[in-house]
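Thioredoxin domain-containing protein
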Amino acid sequence: MSPAAPTLRLGSTAPDFEADTSTGPIKFHDYIGDSWAILFSHPDDFTPVCTTELGAFAKLEPEFAKRNTKLLGLSASSAENHRAWAVDIKDVTGGQVGFPIIADPERKIAHLYDMIDYQDATNLDDKGVQLTIRSVFIIDPSKTIRLIMSYPASTGRNTAEVLRVLDSLQLGDKHRVTTPINWERGDDVIVHPSVTNEEAKTLFPKFRVVKPYLRMTPLKLKSKL
């Protein structure tokens, strides 16, 4: 029987681990260092949806780097397979995968982060072992989990949404704001409820009161949040 996964919630410390990857061995917390990190899992190598996803993340890696964020993929195969798969990924998508892809054939890290696919009984490897789902974790420099998303194996992720949420989290940490529905970088933001109107006059001179509980403000952003 597989070990029970720890209960991971927003605000939990991301479990540390050591693993072999496509770029060599890593210790996860050391790899993150003082950066943010995005850890995202895939069912297996040389699979159609995963190939498109890795290519998309690879193309967006410079944008994540601008936000002091490191990428780290995971797939239930060997590091050698990952390196061979990267050739296909570049051929199909044009994206050059430079970030590590964790080798997790025994599902040790997948279980640690509760990434196992229990929904689809057909999502098995050639040995009949359950594969991983498409999980996404955004982890901040203090190693705290700030976002958890899980997709079924059949559904590809939206990399723009991962980047959008990262922008929102970093913006909120720095400026005492939250972001409304469908917010995009450059849109007006919501003044955090903990900020009084008197404080808001100084922090956000152009803020406006829509309702006593909803105050909006433009927020000029430099190239970095």
